[in-house]
Amino acid sequence: MLRHLTDLYRRAEKQNQYQYSGFLSPAEQAAFVAAAPKGGIAWSFEGGAPAAERRLLICGSENDFGYPPEVPIAVLAVMPASDKFSEALSHRDYLGAVLALGIRRELVGDIIVREKSAYILCLDSIAGFLADELREVRRTRVVSRIETGEIPALAPQFEEMHLNVASERLDAVVAAFCRLARGKADQLLAEEKVFVNSVPVMNGAHRLKEGDVFSVRGFGKAVYDGITQETKKGRYYVTVRKYV
């Protein structure tokens, strides 16, 4: 994967034109950041929606090439064909339906579920195919169409949570956020399933700062807003905003 991304970067540099990767996981993005070439053209990530986790690598910038990038991301809206016969569908249901069509995972970004609808971020090269072929999710018949312009549903929505923790250490916050024992939280850290600002963090003693975005694979993502209260026993209430 790193060789492929480095090749894209060198090609953009040599040909003086943008190159784009497929959608990268947070771990893949972090791996590229750690090994990124130094001193050449600029690079950035884009996922097609605010706070998107899966993002493309964009090799090059307007300063390098004299024109802005045309990021090849499309948004597919998926809605039940009939509200009467629809059921509650999850992110996993939508992703499974897409992959069942033979679509590779790197062609699909975040899937944002809003009530009975979903918005699938994907490469524009497959958007037409998905709009034509995605007709069923689990047992629900659906209608799919490509969205354009401003899409309010892509804006993040939050659920505020108040956690009782011993400190602002990452392991303490993760344990409270996931409602797990501290040992289970340590295991998630050791397995590189915890990310802070899209970078995997294995050190449980890492202290979160206000504004940090942390995610735990399988449990969700949140913005850390800091300490709101100290208890008489020396513990703390911290506030996080969980993405929903």
Main sheet overview: 6 strands, antiparallel
Per CATH, the architecture of the largest domain is Roll
Percentage of residues in strands: 25-35%
Principal-axes geometry comes out as globular
Structural class: alpha+beta
CATH topology of the largest domain: Structural Genomics Hypothetical 15.5 Kd Protein In mrcA-pckA Intergenic Region, Chain A
Strand order of the largest sheet: 9-14-13-12-10-11
Oligomer: single chain
Q: What is the end-to-end distance?
A: 30 Å
In round numbers, the mean pLDDT is 95
How many independent structural domains?
A: 3
Measured as a percent range, the helix fraction is 25-40%
List segments where confidence is low: pLDDT < 50 over at least 5 consecutive residues. Answer: none
The H/E string reads HEHEEHEHEEHEEEHHEEEEE
Write out the CATH superfamily name of the largest domain. RNA-binding S4 domain
Secondary structure tally: strands: 14
Please give the CATH class of the largest domain: Alpha Beta
Number of helices: 7
Rg calculated over all Cα atoms: 20 Å
Element layout with pairings:
Elements: H1 2-15, E1 19-24, H2 26-35, E2 43-46, E3 55-59, H3 62-65, E4 73-80, H4 91-99, E5 108-114, E6 117-123, H5 124-133, E7 136-137, E8 140-147, E9 158-165, H6 170-178, H7 182-190, E10 194-196, E11 199-200, E12 213-216, E13 220-230, E14 236-243
Antiparallel strand pairs: 1-3, 2-3, 4-6, 4-8, 5-6, 7-8, 9-14, 10-11, 10-12, 12-13, 13-14
Helix pairs in contact: 6-7
